[in-house]
Amino acid sequence: MIVYRFWSLALTMGAYCPLFVFLSLLGFSWPLWPVTPNHLMEWITLFAVVLSAISLIFVKLLMSHTIKKSVGEIGQKIVTISRRDQDVLAYLVSYIIPLTTITTTSWTGTSAFLLILALILFLSLETDLRYVNPLMFLQGWHFYRGQLENQEEILLMSQYRLEKIATKPYRRCVRILGHNVLIDRGSMIEGGSTRNNGMVQQ
User: Fold this and answer.
1) In whole angstroms, what is the distance from residue 140 CA to residue 120 CA?
2) Is residue 113 within 8 Å of 104, Cβ to Cβ?
3) Model pTM above 0.85
4) What are phi and psi of 169, to 5 degrees?
5) Which of 8, 80, 105, 148 has CB 3.0 to 4.6 Å from 76, enough for a Cys bridge?
6) Long-range pairs for 3-8: beta carbons < 8 A, 24 or more residues apart
């Protein structure tokens, strides 16, 4: 469970790497000393950029290791599936855009900024918002919630579209950290019917 928490935290921090880069450039002022509200935010965002970059490296290394070693490889039918990244636009409008408009020229504004940032990170870590990951999207990865035919609830990471998985629900997957996070390695049955095969899309 502790290792799984590290995975979730790394995925969350990595998702916000572009935002932290943007914020660090938006408020950059030189020199970074003595400490003012602007300088404090600059130090925090620079630290967040480094931490999120390290998180991205950790995520990629863990995925590469899992795929290369075929960790927990299984072949099962996915009986239900739904997207986890459908709320990207609402998420950007509700959280990210307001965050970039807060002024940090005063200690009050800086405190409000930090509280909102902490709230966003907490919500992302505890909910499916951590799967709203623009950098993973750019690499072709999609996140799905699903259920296997053995009734196990899973989080599926796949480079295939929902429609492709629905037409070929018998998937070959590897498992991250012994938990319910699976990486899709493709269909177990090449060719075949293009029918829905009994899968329920949500």
Assistant:
1) 24
2) yes
3) no
4) -75, -15
5) 148
6) 3/177, 4/177, 4/179, 4/181, 6/58, 7/59, 7/62, 7/176, 7/177, 7/181, 8/125, 8/130
With left for phi above 0 and alpha for psi between -120 and 50, is residue 35 left, alpha or beta? Answer: beta
**How far is it, in rounded angstroms, from Cα 160 to Cα 34?**
50
Q: pLDDT per residue over 12-27, tens digit each?
A: 888 888 878 887 777 6
Structure tokens at 187: 């269909």
Strands 170-176 and 200-201, by their bridges, are unpaired
**Would you call 185 helix, strand, or coil by DSSP?**
strand
The pLDDT of residue 196 is 45
Examine the pLDDT at 78 and tell me if it is beyond 60: yes
Per-residue tokens: 36: 């003012």
Sequence-separated (6 or more) residues with CB below 8 Å from residue 154: 78, 145, 146, 147, 148, 180, 181, 182
Q: How far apart are CA 114 and CA 108, in angstroms?
A: 10
Say what the pLDDT of residue 54 is.
93
Number of other residues whose CB lies within 10 A of the CB of residue 37? 18
pLDDT at 170: 93
Residue 195: the pLDDT is 42
CA of residue 159 relative to chain centroid, distance: 14
